[in-house]
Structures are given as C-alpha cells and as structure tokens.
Specification:
The chain is α/β, with parallel strands linked by helices and 304 residues long. The chain is 29% helix and 10% strand. It is built from ten helices and nine strands. The structure holds iron/sulfur cluster (2 copies).
C-alpha cells in the first residue's frame, strides 16, 4: 500500500459563491505548487456505484480530505459510504474494523482563512515536498441536487434503536446482525434533525446542518436533547395528522440559514443558533428583543 496521501477537495453543498471561489482558488494554488489534487462532489451527493465514490473506495494509501464539514462528521460519513480507513489522531481506538488500516485526515476548510494557508498546511503534512503526495489529479462532475440524511457516529451508538422507533419515515432499519443501519437515507425529511435530539448517546449527526454545531458533528458540542415525552407526543401528533413535518422541523431546530425558518417554537425550544432573530428570519421568541419601558412609551406615544 502506498504511504503517499491522496489529497481531496470535496465541494460545498449547497454551493455558495464564496465557497466556490475559495475552492477554485485553492485548486489553482495547489496546482501552481505542483501538488496533485482531486475535486469531488460533496459527500451527500456520492451515491453508491458512482465513479467518484468508487474512486474513493479504491484509492490506495492515506487520504487528506478537505471539505466544509466537521471532521468527525466527515469521518463517519466516509465510513457509511464504505470508504475504508481509520481517523488519524482523533479517534484511533474507536474506529471500526475496516479491511485496510488506512489513515483518513479530514479538515474543515472553514478552519483557516485563506487558500494560501491551506497550501502551506498541505505541504506541512508531507515534509514540504509536493512529490510526497499520491500523483493522482482528477475532477469529477458535480451532480445536481441536494440530499439530507443522518450519519451515525458508530463509536457512540449503543444500538438502543430509539431512533428506529422514533422515525416514522422508514429511514432506519436493522441489518441481519440486528444492528441499526441508515437504510433509506432519501426518505429523511430535508432540514429535519429530529432524531439527533432523541438519541441518548448523541450519536446522530446531520453534517449539513447550517446552524447547530452539535447536530453538525462538532467535537465537544452537546446537542440539546428532547425530553422523551415531548418526542413521543410529537410523533403521535404526526401520526394522528395533528402536526406536519414542517412543525416537527421547527420544533427540532431550524435548518434554514438564510431564508427564514418561520419557527413558532416557545422561547429557547427551537435550538436555533442564530445570534439575532434577523439572522434566520425566525419568528420564535428565542431571540426576540427584550422590551423595556422606553419601548412601551414609544408604543403609547405612537397610539396617541
Ligand atoms: S438512538 Fe442513537 S444510540 Fe440508539 S440506536 Fe439510534 S443512533 Fe444508536
Ligand atoms: S430527521 Fe426525521 S425523518 Fe430524518 S431520520 Fe430523523 S426522524 Fe427520520
């Protein structure tokens, strides 16, 4: 097996102009520094059997993986996609038994300010010699579409199956060994992170969640849990037609960073991480400005 690492840039999904410019500039600067690099779609768009995923599964040697996700989420997402490897440094003892003992080094591109810094970082990982990278440069087409589904941190999951019981859309199932699997990812409701707040082990991540770092898989950031009674009530109400998927999404944490979540959750219950209500367009009371006597006075004067 080669010990030269393969360098990957996995494109942002959904794409934003800033991220696309950052990725393109980084790609150009790596090429200018004679560093071989491969451009892949976002992990959510890698379907089983696709050229891009097959390439990744069959790649020889360690992988340095640059994308916009939390590194823990990237690692377990690659595991879900059956890309063999062991997370380098962070959780070496907790990695699953893959057929090959291969290192995976995921990095979140947001961690450094500029493409130039990433070029320096990449070179530092290979003794500053571009010839120490695996000499493979590929560019895979970016499929159209968006996908949203849960990724399980297998080092945390205890197979309690609470997520399977909670999800009424058939996303989860058990495999022949009785272990939890994400069987129908595309049945998951876009933007909904509900089961991540039901899992007692905080093992369920939605790596594309734009607001909540815990749900997105950041190390050391707790997910605000649902009380089991509240979760059961939500589930029962949905089954009785008394609530909608949109209501469940709102109650579980808004996932719309820009267009507004329209959240009607009670104060503090929506899980929204936006600092100001105007950041997410949220109608919830979580970020409502506190009124003082001056606000009342202005209202009174306005009514006269
Ligand atoms: S609820 Fe969490 S710990 Fe339980 S089976 Fe699901 S992912 Fe695993
Ligand atoms: S977020 Fe909702 S739809 Fe998706 S897997 Fe979890 S419970 Fe099921």
């Amino acid at each position: 097996m080669s010990h030269f690492p393969l360098l990957i840039i996995s494109r942002s999904q959904p794409a934003s102009p800033e991220r696309t410019i950052f990725e393109n500039t980084l790609h150009e600067k790596l090429q200018a520094a004679n560093i071989p690099v491969c451009l892949l779609p976002d992990l959510s768009l890698l379907r089983k059997g696709s050229d891009a995923l097959t390439f990744l599964q069959q790649a020889n040697g360690p992988i340095i993986f640059l994308n916009w996700l939390q590194p823990r989420a990237t690692y377990w997402w690659l595991a879900f996609l059956e890309v063999p490897g062991k997370m380098a440094s962070a959780v070496p003892d907790e990695a699953p038994a893959f057929p090959q003992d291969r290192a995976i080094l995921p990095f979140n591109l947001a961690a450094l300010d500029s493409p130039e810094q990433w070029v320096e970082k990449a070179l530092a990982l290979v003794d500053k010699n571009p010839k120490n990278f695996l000499e493979v440069s590929r560019r895979f087409p970016l499929p159209i579409g968006e996908r949203w589904y849960p990724v399980i941190d297998r080092s945390r999951c205890v197979n309690c199956l609470q997520c399977l019981e909670f999800c009424i859309f058939g996303v989860y199932d058990r495999n022949a060994d009785g272990n939890l699997v994400v069987k129908s990812p595309d049945s998951c409701k876009p933007g909904c992170p509900a089961c991540s707040r039901v899992c007692p082990q905080q093992a369920i991540m939605f790596p594309l969640h734009p607001d909540d770092l815990g749900i997105a898989g950041a190390d050391g950031v707790a997910i605000q849990p649902f009380d089991p009674a509240q979760a059961n009530q939500l589930r029962a109400e949905y089954q009785q037609g008394k609530t909608s998927v949109e209501d469940i999404v709102r109650a579980c944490g808004c996932a719309s960073g820009e267009s507004g979540c329209g959240c009607k959750a009670d104060d503090g219950a929506c899980g929204c991480q936006a600092e100001e209500s105007s950041d997410c367009g949220c109608d919830c009371a979580c970020h409502a400005e506190k009124r003082d006597y001056l606000d009342d006075l202005i209202d009174e004067l306005g009514n006269e």
